[in-house]
Write a structure and sequence with these properties.
ATP binds at residues 75, 134, 159, 212. Helices cover 25% and strands 17% of the residues. It is of the alpha/beta class and 253 residues long.
Length: 253
């Protein structure tokens, strides 16, 4: 056989070669946005910055992609991820029969560290897990990530960590925990965390029930919605002999 007839060797991938790409979101903005958009279109996961902690994101309209996100976090379908969107107006496209209190809070604090649990649109084609007809929505206060969301559409996003571990406030911690389960890591420096967003449920309580106190405090919130319910609100006379319950792991950024 002549040299011209020989088939070239197939390229091989070293088992030690990383299966992910990392971009400086500020210095490589165009490349970072393009790579992240491509990964989302392929049904893969990305790690992205927010105004609270880093998040792991996937195409919210792809059940397989969302399952990949849950698998990366070692989390079951009983803890569905919230959805991040670029604009406040997207809330009405995702939610059904929005309470006026929820609209007022969104208008006051979005973009920002507020997640709203509301009734999901009945014909919404998202399989985020066992949502029981609800959806958790947030507009992050991060210019790069909002630009990405305008390109990809809504993303299912949860904190970039393995369940039970600390949420990531820098890309190296996210990479250490999630490794090859993520295709693209978008580094925008340290986030403002580790305090996550405040979560308010408008399904269990039409006036709004705070289910996780986070970056937005009760005084700020009640300036807009004085009727908010917070069952864990400290009493005037705390009982120091009673140890506080351990908080549940934060489900979202």
């Amino acid at each position: 056989m002549s040299e011209l007839d020989q088939t070239p060797d197939e390229p091989t991938t070293s088992p030690d070669e990383p299966q992910w790409a990392r971009f400086d979101a500020m210095a490589q903005t165009s490349e970072a946005l393009a790579a992240a958009q491509a990964a989302i279109a392929e049904g893969r996961c990305i790690v992205l910055p927010t105004d609270t902690v880093y998040g792991i994101g996937a195409n919210a309209f792809s059940a397989e992609a969302v399952q990949g996100l849950l698998d990366a976090k070692h989390r079951g379908r009983d803890m569905p991820p919230p959805v991040l969107v670029a604009e406040t107006g997207m809330l009405e496209a995702l939610a059904d029969e929005l309470p006026s209190h929820a609209i007022r809070l969104a208008e006051a604090f979005w973009p920002g560290a507020l997640t709203l649990i509301v009734p999901a649109q009945k014909h919404l084609r998202m399989d985020l897990g066992e949502t029981r007809g609800t959806i958790a929505v947030r507009v992050p206060d991060h210019d790069f990530t909002r630009d990405l969301l305008r390109r990809t559409g809504p993303l299912a996003v949860s904190s970039a960590n393995v369940s039970g571990q600390e949420a990531s406030t820098d890309i190296d911690e996210a990479l250490r925990q999630l490794g090859d389960s993520v295709a693209v890591y978008l580094d925008a420096g340290a986030t403002a965390g580790p305090t996550p967003s405040t979560i308010i449920n408008f399904v269990s309580e039409p006036l709004g029930r705070i289910v996780r106190m986070g970056a937005l405090g009760i005084d700020q919130l009640r300036e807009v919605d004085p009727f908010l319910v917070w069952e864990d609100e400290p009493s005037a006379e705390p009982k120091p002999d009673l140890a506080p319950d351990a908080e549940d792991e934060a489900p979202a950024s």
